[in-house]
Amino acid sequence: MTSNPANRPDNAAVDDTTFSLMSSLRFDPDLPSAASIYAKDSYPKPHDSPYYLLRHHQNRLLQAATNFKWAKAVAFLQPPLESFAETLDTFIPDHSKAWRLRIVIDAEGECAVDVHPATAWPLRCMFLPTSFDDLSSLSGSFPWRLVIDSVPTAPSQFTSYKTTSRGHYDAARRRVGISSPTDTVEALLFNLAGEVMEGSITCVYFRRRTHNHHRREEEGSKAEWITPPLSSGGMISVSRQYALDHGFCTEQVIRVDELVDGERCLISNGVRGFMPAILDLGTSR
Question: What span, in angstroms and rounded, lies between the C-alpha atoms of 253 and 5?
Fold first, then answer.
């Protein structure tokens, strides 16, 4: 079972609706065949969908709409997954090509989808990794550099739910020196209590830590990787949910003061899947 977002004073309905809900994903006609090769028994249904983790995207958007008490958005997102896919289909210019989609839903339940050509990408990355080294071999741009932010980020509804209100992520990216979306660098955010939250555009995974107060959980799990619980303030992530559902990782609080410079990590999101990263503690300090 996964943790819930932290109980925060701003968890009531938000009256300001100048923001919209958002989810980004990859559409790829080769995804179903790749899933049958690399993840036949460990990829969520529907296996024949060209939309990456589509059910998780719909669920995430629905959770956000419910949290913000946007009744019209909830009504739009509640129909069966097939109806949601049919809506997205109307925005795809050419179903024989790969696309990067940015789904945006406002308080009135209106859905817009920004569609851009997807860059060439090893589809093996879209599925649970077998090892850090195998993942690193899939692209010349791997591993990425994961740089810890220089200041903490306060958890809020806008760190728990993905929306167009992303100033806190943009600020973190600027502080660690990311100047372009093509940079193979990610910012690592932490909260006011010194707990790791997430990356600016990814969720994060670290090798399992061992603490006495976690001994019982560790005895019941053989997962090699851990990811911060939602109670630390990070976002509900589709790829993180995929990894948790299939036992690739478990949740554990990860403190900044226990991070190790140069350690091997993983990062993931709904557009690129899973990527290897090396933790760099020196750049922003």
Answer: 13
